[in-house]
Amino acid sequence: MVGPSRHSLPQWMSAASRVDFDGAANVSRSDASASPSSPPHRRSSSSDSDMGFGERALSAAGAAFLSAILVNPLDVAKTRLQAQAAGVPYYPSQPQYGRQMASLCANTILSDIRCSPSCAHGGIFGTEAARPPDRFQYKGTLDVFYKVVRQEGFARLWRGTNAGLALAVPTVGIYLPCYDMFRNWIEEFTTCNAPNLTPYAPLVAGSLARSLACITCSPIELARTRMQAYKEFQNGVKPPGMWKTLLGVLSPHRSTSNHQNLQSYRILWTGVGAQLARDVPFSAICWSTLEPIRRRLLALVGEEGHAVSVLGANFSAGFVAGSLAAAATCPLDVAKTRRQIEKDPARALKMTTRQTLAEIWRDGGLKGLFTGVGPRVGRAGPSVGIVVSFYEVVKYVLHRRHMDL
């Protein structure tokens, strides 16, 4: 790995990017050479003081908007693969399916007779379970793309995009600005009181910010997962949107009592425990990996950095960090999906993340725990890279504008 540059890091960089992760609370070489006998301290980034919460949230929301549109097909593929492993059928109900297969299979005379073993369709009719043919089974990411486009239309790859946008904009709009502020507060405190803990500021700040964002936006995440997991079999029928999906979640719990209705709203936070169990480690791994990588890349650029180099360094660091974090937390993502697509309300409220993981292990073993890891990693790497690079470029541009004024 490239060592720290002898030049000081750019002034526009965020505070955490200026922390030396090679040693506990070491300052940059320029700071150390300026005052070798003084206690270590962090030079504040002028961009942090120039940007308010509104500007941070706006730039983060813009990044989230772009990312949510670009990577939505991978999100659909990941959710479909995980839902299929959980038992969600992607073929018509048995009576309809049996009638369709009976018309195709010349070897079948009565609906309660098995197809011939040589029959390519392999259906079993009557009271016995029908084994769907390969065209109703997803075998991988590309297979999901192909079958969704062929059976449902190209637009279905962007199923749940409205919920994804409704989720991404407030989530990232909360997440990145809060991460910046939490990290700066933690660094200021640890630099003065516990210098050895300063390198862990991104990990703690990322975990706190992600927890706040997850709890706030969990109902929208529930709607998006359900929208992407289920398939509409009736031709010409528009699948339910985000609000209709949420109302469908609430409808079995409605009663005449306002108190009971208030209690029933907690069903909208189904799976929030699994989501936190997934996103908090994801954020901790992501930021503790991303910060040192982008710090070293940006140290090579120094004060001569421009928007393109800022974009490249942050996208590269975000891509690597997001991919690693997504792969490591895939089992928790599988558990989150299974919790949120559970149709039995009583079971959905009683199931814990630990029980869900045990159930997944029992049903599918290690392969079951990493169902959908390909599209998840393929989604998270570019998504984190896009969000972080867009966010930092906007900070860079705003900082330059403040300097010119």
From TrEMBL:
Solcar repeats lie at residues 51-185, 197-296, 309-397. It comes from the Eukaryota. Residues 25-52 are annotated as: Disordered. InterPro entries: MCP_dom_sf (IPR023395), MCP_transmembrane (IPR018108), Mtm1-like (IPR045315). The keyword tRNA processing does not apply. PROSITE patterns: SOLCAR. One of its GO terms (biological process) is mitochondrial transmembrane transport. The keyword Signal does not apply. Keywords: Membrane, Mitochondrion, Mitochondrion inner membrane, Repeat, Transmembrane, Transmembrane helix, Transport. It is found in: Mitochondrion inner membrane. Its main location: mitochondrion. One of its GO terms (cellular component) is mitochondrial inner membrane. It is a multi-pass membrane protein. Belongs to the mitochondrial carrier (TC 2.A.29) family. This is Mitochondrial carrier protein MTM1 isoform X1. It comes from Elaeis guineensis var. tenera.
